[in-house]
Amino acid sequence: MTLVARRLDHALHDRARRRLVPSGTARRRQLVIVEMMLAVAGCIAGYTLFIDWARHFEVRVCEQIILAMGVDRISAALGDSFIVFGPGFEPVTAQMTGSCSILSSVLALAALAVIVLRERSQVLLGFVVASVFVLAANQVRLVLSLLAGRYFAVDALVFFHDWIGAVINFAYTLIGLLIMIGMTMYDAQRAEQDHTGRHTADRPEAWARPGLGHRVPLDDDDAPKAPKVQVAAFLHRKILPRALSVRLARRRERTRVDYRVGHENADRRAAIVRELAAKGLGVHTATLLAVATHETDIGVLDALADAVAARQWEPVANADVVALRLWARAWLMRTPAVDVDFVPESGRLIAVTGAGGPAGVAVIQALQKAGDAVLALDANPDGVGLRLATHSAVLPRADQPGYAESLLSILAEHRPGALVCTVAEEYHALTPLVGHLDELGVRTWLPDPASAETCLDKIAFATALHAAGVPHPATAWTADTAGLVPGPWVVKPARGRGSRDVVLVDNPADLPHAFFSVPGAIVQTRLAGQEFTADALVARDGRMVACVPRWRDETRGGISVRGTTFASATVTEVVAATLRAVGHSGPANVQGFVDFTGAVTIVEVNPRFSGGLPLTLAAGADVVSAYVAGILDPAAEMPGLEFQPGVRMARYFSEVFYTSSSLEMVGAAR
């Protein structure tokens, strides 16, 4: 049989097979035709059923708009038409026809949504937004047409509605279509996708070229075809200047990170990087290189370096894979700045924020006494705790730009096992970083953000205690209600610390001046009796494992300088009820008064360690070690802590000396 005969026989068999079994393309074409016919039928049926209702609805909406504008001589009393009295009071009836309604546009959008875009979950929202836009635009068209007839002439109404209105109709229909398509086609994962949202570039692991020199025999019919001309490649290689081509390539790689990885949080980005690397460094090399170039999160970069290092057995596919491996090697060879002359007894390094405050200093000394090394962190370069710790670094304030980046960079360099925060105002900045800290292996234990906010906001705190029935002084935070609070009074900021801007008032005439002179002021009844502070530690399940009350025998600047521990079941019960009311977990110090009858009234809660913490530690309740143990092992049950009543504390000044060069060194750490 000749070659021509074989070709003819093959073609006849192929044509017969196609007649018997329709191809997938033919079946898809038939399904598309059926869907189009159903869409047309649905539009016709919807128009027939709802056109009268739509006309009346749009007339009512337009009537309300005109009434709101205060325009007279336009009436919608006919229900589906308007009566317009022109400048000479000549009446004309403007009928709301079917072509003036938005129903046809809305039905077209619905058909597109159902037939073409139905597999995307956001199509309903896109359809609703587009329909609302079409309705609003059509109302603008109707109102302008009626106003033209009212103020100019009847001919102006007809001209505006038939000509300018037609252009507006076309424009808002097209814009509504684009709105729906734009809202529907968007996907958070913007890689190469088909119409169902699948990543066509996400090739399976089994997709590989035949190896070991294997060749598939080719018949004459399967001869290789000439490669298609790639316009983008031709432009980059032949037309565009080299510098511009490189710049566009870099921009494309930055976008590659965004459409596949960048829209996720850090934990998810790290997981995606591991998944992409597991499919082969030669498969998603461009994305992995873009992550190594543009990613800023330390945890994600660690995950990428580990994933690349785990695939050293993989053959080198190209120069980009070599560059990726060299980057991973350099990243993993980073050595944290560790003082080799100091080895902590516990083998642990604990980071402490707020190292310049009394609470931070107390925590640092307690950790060092337990044999831990400490990484002291503070925003003040002269913070004394920076000189007491093994390692130290200066951070920006938590409310300043760069705080998160500086903190994560320092923690990535030193890799402490836990982070203890002694500044409650830093919680709002630390809470979003918990996932990043876990990636670095730094554990922490932060209170619930809502609970911390309740404690820091004295208005919310007073409301919470009142709702829980916990004794609390009468509180007002408006000028109208300040006079209703029984005196004598204490006026203080709703958000403040350290007894700053606190004003004591005895004369009612001085109360308004004090209220308006204190920023964000609240007014409370000044309590009588003996003031106390209770250092408490609440487990994650809400159980209070430690409560050490102490009398505030003498205070300076809001810090206790002389105190005495005491035991009181009543105080302990009220403290526990207070912490339950605000939903707090972790360390806290609760301040209040005990009057001459023994009644306990709570003034405030600081969701952190207190400045008088050394007295609690000296009384035998090691709340710092218990708290760090709870950080490192969240599942472990925290035992109750006992303390010795009657232990007294008297504070004295102690000097720490350092040179300007050491200050510059600490300040330059970050």
TrEMBL record:
The chain crosses the membrane at residues 31-50, 96-117, 124-143, 163-186. GO terms for cellular component: plasma membrane. One of its GO terms (molecular function) is ligase activity. It is a multi-pass membrane protein. Keywords: ATP-binding, Cell membrane, Hydrolase, Ligase, Membrane, Nucleotide-binding, Protease, Transmembrane, Transmembrane helix. Gene3D superfamilies: 3.40.50.20, ATP-grasp fold, A domain (3.30.1490.20), ATP-grasp fold, B domain (3.30.470.20). The keyword Transport does not apply. It is found in: Cell membrane. Residues 462-632 form the ATP-grasp domain. InterPro entries: ATP-dep_AA_Ligase, ATP-grasp, ATP_grasp_subdomain_1, Exo/Archaeosortase_dom, NAD(P)-bd_dom_sf. SUPFAM superfamilies: Glutathione synthetase ATP-binding domain-like, NAD(P)-binding Rossmann-fold domains. One of its GO terms (biological process) is proteolysis. PANTHER family: ATP-GRASP ENZYME FSQD (PTHR43585:SF2), FUMIPYRROLE BIOSYNTHESIS PROTEIN C (PTHR43585). This is Carbamoyl-phosphate synthase large subunit. It comes from Actinoplanes lutulentus.
